[in-house]
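RETRY 2/3 - previous attempt timed out on the joint model. Re-submitting the same 435-residue input unchanged.
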Amino acid sequence: MIWNPRFECMDREEMRALQLARLRETLARVYDRVPFYRESFDRAGVKPADLETLEDIRKFPFTVKTDLRDHYPYGLFAVLMKEVVRLHASSGTTGKPIVVGYTKNDLETWAECIARIVTMAGVTASDVAQVTFGYGLFTGAFGLHYGLEKVGATVVPSSSGNSEKTIMLMKDFGATALIGTPSYCLHLAEVAMEMGIDPVSLPLRVGLFGSEAWSEKMRGELERAWGIKATDNYGLSELMGPGVSGDCERFSGMHIAEDHFLVEIIDPGTGDPLDYGQKGEVVITTLTKEAIPMVRYRTRDISVLNPAPCDCGRTTVRMRKVTGRTDDMLIISGVNVFPSQIESVLMGVEGIAPHYQIIVGKKGLLDYLEVQVELTPEKFTGNFRDLEELEDKLRRKLYSVLSLSAKVRLLEPKSLERSTGKAKRVIDNRPKNGL
Ligand code: DLL
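RETRY 2/3 succeeded.
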């Protein structure tokens, strides 16, 4: 089923015309109402009226995360506070969070975008949907919540944290859809096993996962662990939260809600636009957001766009699974390493569980990389020689992918700390000043 065929299956030319009209309005509105945009457009020597075609968006300056931080808390809002009915904030590991606001219309748009992605995943009014994102300032839980209600699903807002209770409710309430981060939902399957409940025996049939990078192999792990279809969905607080794009049942890229978001791909080094099919940084302009519109927001996320119509009938541009961020690249002894490359190596080896941590540090003047990974319970009971061989195999595979020697530490099952939200995969212990 398609939630809103009018927009999701719109003729491409009509969609571009709609985007252009909405973009014009957005640029005029921010120029009028947000001093930050007026100054940054003036500095770049552009005016909203310079936009004649959609491609002219490239003349306008980018917005970055520090712009939101520098205008904490309400400096980028384009409406009066009395029109703002909700605030969310991104966690941010250091300093002040970034704050985003929503008008009543923004909340309606948000629920609409989520209704589309949950419908794409196959969720209907007959489903019991359990939300295991943490309810709070984070956008994940409230975002999914209202869209699920909009399609008529029975929402169980169990939140994150009390994993045993979550499993008990899942069983007793007959949950059929699971919503959360891939890493926490994988952990929930372990908890079910510990409670003597086989996750595959539960009525769960579909998962909507997002909020962190997860590989195709991790998708396979989740599908096996729960006996479900695992769908991906993407978004970020600065633009709304979840709801920017999501997988349909064809699993061939996430459909973007293009009537609400204009998506570009740029070369992260030069800022130059890239074509469809080329891999680069995702840049998004909101087309309908009232409270805090964003112009050319640099997400740091890496993806590829595909404009071909999908077999599912939708015509919206699709984005490939986000495998990493431009800022999560590690430089270890001068070699560029993406955590997703390490995950792909680990997930491809039998006997290795999908729980790992990457430690980077310095010994004297030299960088080192240590990959800690848990064994599956079956492998753990194997003999010492087997484990030595496995360690060696992993080391060799990592070397062939990264061109870097890594120390591999095999750990017993369940020894790494589980997160209830986004997993923290990398611990970089190197001094920040480079000494
Ligand atoms: O994580 C919004 C969200 C909630 C999306 C629930 C999907 C489901 P933030 O906390 O602001 O918002 O984090 C945004 O998380 O820039 C990406 O780096 C990452 N991210 C989000 N979804 C995905 C995904 C939410 N499906 C940041 N795949 C983004 C990979 C993702 N990374």
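The longest strand covers residues 352-363. Closing ticket.
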